[in-house]
Design brief:
single chain; binds S-adenosylmethionine; globular; transferase; protein-lysine N-methyltransferase activity
């Protein structure tokens, strides 16, 4: 979601939660201790195997899929054993009146907005009156936020102080904090947590068949699978930590740490987290901002900020909104692939859409050493991911410089870029500038390579763009099918745009010759 930048001053503090114990009588969610002895043992064995397989370094490229069925199979077996503990979820909207009262009781003015369901977006905020561009529509004080700082002050504090992973992964800390509070019926944040979705549309909730829909888009499939593997590993790691660590004995979390509970907490954080300044005004911290996190995304600019004096997050209108219209905010310049994997949606008109392109200089290239040396001066690795962008300039400076070096012959490399003839920083930077070039011949190689590569990538899609366009419009298509089709449409537009751009670049070289 959006980012805050301003520093704040010390004011209010998050109210501590009620003391808690591990007994299932405190929470209405069934506990792991209620499983039979055999089920507990089977689950523990499966979790140990899960940790082992997920801790092996991930395979790259097509091999990412190779151990996925095994990981997925283990997770599904664990889920099956734990399924008897699934809590009964109430419909979300039942919780909204208490949520709004809680906000109002804590000083939030909700008179400009109303929580409403919007097709394709889930719930969102509707303007209850005409609002002008730049007008403030929401102010949420820090004391209502769930943050890494409030996690440290909660019963989780001792575990965070001890565990190295929690110290370096604020998003995981926040997820455990959220889950621990969800399990506590006395939690200060209960009205907020009750109003959260009970499940998400991120690929963590997809089955193996669903993930196959991303196969035409190899990079996104890799991202989704890596995310699945990471969350499975974290689950197995924290399950063991919670069972073994004496600091966890009194945590509600310990006896309710099912895979589904962890997936829910991680997904809630992933789709709603935001950066806020720390209480002492120093480093940014992560937090969940109640009600503000009901805003859905559109193209635009950041319009939320942190008011240091009020110690509150403030949000301003991106444009004029008339009464009854959905108030949308800008989450950030993310690609559809990033939105899909981290937020569970794809935005058809995404101005910031981009496609990841993995490129590398072959170690078998006789000029590998010369090219790598020049690339390192440009702070570019000889093998890495680049982006092709949506819009008028699909190729950015880093990709252009890489392709120019990649295409250089020995004469240019030696005469112009190595030894005594090694250029200064300004000349090196010129390699990133489309308006400056070494030779028409090298430029031609650059644009021809890109044209061929993008054409090959386009051909790898399993169906035509027209088929995907029709799928994306089908009212009865599942979210997964619709989002995957929309993702591929965006990717292919970027690839076609790149092919056309490269063709124009090549044509302009020929015109210059004349
Ligand atoms: C911060 S929450 C916003 C509130 C959310 N719709 C809800 O019902 O709680 C972010 C989630 O809203 C949905 N969302 C946000 N912007 C969207 C958009 N432009 N199109 C579709 N879904 C969107 C996605 O499910 C995303 O994970």
């Amino acid at each position: 979601m959006g980012r805050k930048t301003k520093k704040n001053t010390k004011t209010t503090q998050a109210q501590p939660s009620q003391p808690q114990g591990a007994s299932s009588s405190i929470t209405d969610t069934p506990a792991l201790s209620e499983l039979s002895k055999n089920a507990k043992r089977d689950a523990a064995e499966l979790i140990t195997s899960l940790l082992e397989i997920c801790s092996k370094p991930p395979e790259s490229g097509a091999k990412e899929w190779e151990d996925f069925p095994e990981i997925h199979g283990l997770v599904e077996k664990i889920r099956k054993i734990q399924s008897v503990l699934a809590p009964h979820e109430k419909p979300r909207d039942v919780a909204f009146p208490a949520f709004i009262s809680w906000l109002n009781d804590n000083g939030v003015d909700t008179s400009s907005v109303e929580i409403t369901e919007f097709p394709q977006y889930g719930y969102g905020l509707k303007a209850t009156k005409d609002l002008k561009e730049s007008e403030k529509f929401l102010q949420i004080p820090r004391k209502l936020m769930l943050t890494v700082e409030s996690a440290k002050q909660s019963p989780l504090g001792p575990l965070i102080a001890e565990d190295k992973i929690l110290q370096v992964m604020p998003n995981v800390t926040l997820a455990l904090h959220l889950l621990n509070e969800k399990l506590n019926p006395q939690s200060f944040w209960k009205p907020y947590i009750d109003a959260l979705p009970s499940q998400y549309s991120t690929p963590l909730y997809w089955n193996s068949e669903d993930l196959q829909h991303l196969k035409g888009s190899p990079v996104q499939a890799g991202d989704a699978i890596n995310q699945y593997r990471n969350i499975a590993r974290q689950y197995a790691y924290f399950y063991r930590l919670l069972q073994k660590n004496p600091g966890a004995t009194n945590l509600l979390l310990k006896d309710h740490f099912t895979y589904d509970n962890y997936r829910w907490a991680v997904s809630s954080v992933m789709t709603r987290q935001n950066q806020i300044p720390g209480k002492d005004g120093s480093r940014a911290t992560l937090g969940l901002i109640p009600l503000w996190d009901m805003c859905n995304h559109t193209n635009g600019i950041y319009t939320s900020d942190y008011n240091a004096e009020a110690d509150a997050c403030e949000s301003f209108c991106l444009k004029d909104f008339v009464s009854g219209q959905q108030i949308l905010i800008f989450y950030g310049p993310r690609s559809n692939g990033e939105f899909l994997v981290h937020s569970g949606f794809v935005y058809p008109d995404n101005e910031h859409d981009r496609l990841c392109l993995k490129l590398g200089i072959s170690k078998g290239d006789s000029l590998f050493a010369l090219k790598s040396e020049l690339l390192s001066k440009l702070n570019l690795a000889p093998s890495r991911s680049f982006y092709l962008h949506n819009g008028r300039f699909p190729v950015d400076g880093d990709l252009l410089a890489f392709l120019r070096v990649f295409s250089m012959d020995e004469v240019i490399l030696k005469d112009k870029y190595s030894g005594d003839s090694a250029p200064g920083p300004e000349e090196l930077e010129a390699l990133k500038d489309e308006d400056k070039q070494d030779s028409d011949e090298n430029e031609d190689k650059v644009w021809s390579f890109l044209q061929t590569r993008a054409t090959l990538l386009l051909k790898a899609y399993p169906c035509s763009i027209e088929e995907d366009e029709s799928t994306a419009q089908q009212a009865d298509a599942s979210d997964v099918v619709r989002m995957s089709a929309q993702l591929r449409i965006g990717e292919r537009k970027i690839l076609q745009n790149t092919i056309d751009y490269a063709a124009r670049k090549k044509a302009s070289l020929k015109t210059n010759d004349i």
